[in-house]
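Illustration 12: Sialidase.
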Amino acid sequence: MKRKVAGIIAVIALTASLFGNGVMASSGSKSQGYDWGRVKTVGGGFVPGIIYNPSEKDLVYVRTDIGGAYRWDKKTNTWKQLLDWVGYDNWNMAGVESLATDPVDPNRVYIAAGTYSNDFTDQNGVMLRSNDKGETWKKTVLPFKFGGNMPGRSMGERLAIDPNNNSVVYFGARNGNGLWRSTDYGATWNKVTSFTAEQNVKDYYGGEVGPVWIAFDATTGKKADAKHKKSAQTTKTIYVGVADTEQSIYKSTDGGATWQPVAGQPHEGFVPHHGALTADGKLYITYNSAIGPYDGPAWNGTKAGSVWKLDTKSGVWTDISPAVIAPTDASGVPSYPFGGLAVDPSNPNTVMVATMNMWWPDEHIFRSTDGGATWTSFWTMGEGYSRVNKYDLDYSQSPWLDWGRTSSPTDVEQNPKLGWMIGDLEIDPFNPDRLLYGTGATLFAADHLTALDRNNGDKVKVSVHAEGIEETAVLGLISPPDGAHLISAMGDIGGFRHEDLDKAPTMITNPYIGTSTDLDYAELNPNLIVRVGNAENKDARLGLSTDNGVTWTPASNAWTDTDGDKTQGGTVALSANGNTIVWAPKSASADQSRPVSYSNDHGRTWTASAGIPEGATVSSDRVNSSKFYAYADGAFYVSKDGGANFVKSVKAVNLPSKLNSKFKAVPGVEGDIWLVAAKDNTNTQSEYGIFHSTDSGATFTKLKNVQESAMIGFGKAAPGQSYMAIYINGRINGKFGFYRSDDAGRSWIRINDDLHQYANATQAITGDPRVYGRVYIGTNGFGIVRGDIAANKPKPGNSGPKEK
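Figure caption equivalent — predicted structure in token form:
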């Protein structure tokens, strides 16, 4: 989906006001209060940034790449999502490029909101500012895009506040847009035209990565003194790290008026991921040959990264890179690729760094208490190709982190791992014995850090610290009429059987499918469930359960699998009685044929279906076990013989050219099908809206009371009604939101408000067939949202900005 953002000018002053709390009903439609929460997974995605406030204890934020930002709530010991109010029309704001908390006024916080800096969106970046720790926001649209989910997103922070004159805020922009500055607390922004640093490093979409971190020498300015009526003096000395392989560190000694490369800096061809300046004038920098977070240097004997220290008073640079601790078959590597960097604010000689993308056997977290002269790792190699851990890891909060496989503490490769994609780690400024670090799947806390310093056998205590963080990309949801209330298909972390909605589950395995793309259950026998997803080589892409998802068995692939095969899962449908599976896998290359196929023996053997294009979306009738349906490129197809043969519905015309989500048939009513689509700005001629068939897809009627809809699902019928409740994420009377219909689509009730919108929710929604009014919403980065009818009007939460 793309949306245009107008107004590209040198100085931006588009200030937005706060809007009121409460349920906002669209004109001409009813509304109903709902209580909103999350189905627990706990974690699930990349945490590229951790930002402590240096002035207020326990004030800490984390940012995510597609799932908003969070603030720690000490009272509840959970993380609070700050961007639930981001709506469908502004979905690009859900990715956070950078975040800054004010060291002078801890109530102030800034977010650079914008997910993509390439052609995935037409929306420009938005600078959000709050003076109540993120409870309410105002915004300024900048004349370029941000890249919260772009390569290099764990470098930083790009946002930085002057520690003396906190009205001054800097931001490092991508795609050649350079360095920007605000002098009025982020309301207006100007480009720093004197900053002309070369930026030769590009991401794999072709965009320049740009300035990635900013560090102030606080001793070169002064804070305001109200008692003596003295104004703040802006910090004079500023350092900026730029993604450039020749000259990457720049310095200003006149408050940003002029800039020059720092003399004597390393010229190793690396890029500076993080920079931290200590109170005694030491600038620490981690370097990496790649920008991350996925790409990383191979262990092929070449230098991969380094850690350097600059004494800013003497100008002397020192290579303080930790020595390699590696298994014997990787001993030829002279250095690690580094990412995260932390300096203890209470002791400038205590430094910690993390490797990044050491995919095997594990990442290293190093700690030094002598300014980098010596280092201690969280783990080392022991005798006989074994491992010695100096930490204990408690992952009970997220039991899925072991991916269904455990290991011995002495195994070289651990499961769960200490982490991967460790792009950021930070020491608590009020507790030097505590560290937070982000990984590709969660947020960890490491307590008892000083155990490393004593080396007396005590261990660091590592544990999941992600309660409240729900950062999953949900691709499919089913709510069977019996058994578990919810089963999910997710990107990157497979999927889950959510037997207890308030407790994180273990991951579905056997087969392990990293990204599950679809799942279905047999309407008349919900113990039978199938799921499909992406895998490689000869690995199974389909799993079958006969006990409602408790245990699983891999099925055969519906094609001749070979080494190097990257066929994706596509979509799947299970007949009402569970005897037949119809599977539409998705080919990974144009020269591979992956036809829609069916199986009558639980996936042991497959036969290609006739009359249906490859890559179609398939669903089953929920009453007649012989009927299957398919959609492809604006055409609808029907099979009446268990998926063996499909026939195109010639009278089913004027359908959308493509769908955002899976079309569905209504349980309990044969031939009752609902198909939805949202407006496609890349193809404005395509139809969109809600289309309903009551004759098994022979014809469809477009609803007139809904303009567009991204997804649709069904739940328990309202009291006194026989037809199931319908749930959509769609636009009615110009307002996009979540709606429920209790009368087969004749009228609609808006069930969310402007504080609960969850950005890009387009692929999965379902009601609960056992609880009237309950809806489960799959989001792209905000987890599985759960809504229930509120007994009373819900209390307001975060308030987002609204254009004047």
